[in-house]
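Per reviewer request, we include the raw input and output of the structure prediction for the construct analysed in the revised manuscript.
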Amino acid sequence: MTLTISILYIIAICVVAVAGTPEEDGKWHPYKYGQNGKYIPTDEGKYIHIPNPYIHIDNPYNGGFGPYTHDYEPYVSAATEDRYRLVMTPPKDIPYYKDGYYKNNGIKIISQKHVYDEDKYDFNFETENKIRAKENAILKNPNTIDEGIASSGFYEYLGPDGFMYRVDYTADENGFRPKVKRLETPYSGKWVLEKVN
């Protein structure tokens, strides 16, 4: 019996608690928002302005490429399109490579100089058929096991294609190190586009 009274007592408390809770009826209840019923403002949801002004770029249409004109050229497929390749034109008339030039004239030396000392040498020469050479050398580490010659210079000649071939080099304890160049001359041929179809 005591248990039944306790259960009824608990149910009664729950009913009073639920019935005593005010429902949101849409009416103004002054004590709900503080003791005096006044509105209390907060910053929640406040608008924050971020300035982002419009920047005008003055770019009026000026007709572009002019009025429209129809292109009457027919479609050209890859099969009928013109194709080209790079070819070297033959060299101009090089007198040094004509038949009989060396037999009839020989090769004339235009200039030649040389200096030979105990620990160095220098030489240079040039021939009429455009062969030139120059070398400077010194003796390094004399009277030791590492004794050797260090030299630097170049040689060049005019090839049968009209180009000048030049080799600049250094030779020392690190070996022979050449740098080769192929230079255009007034005799050399030129690269041109040749149609192949």
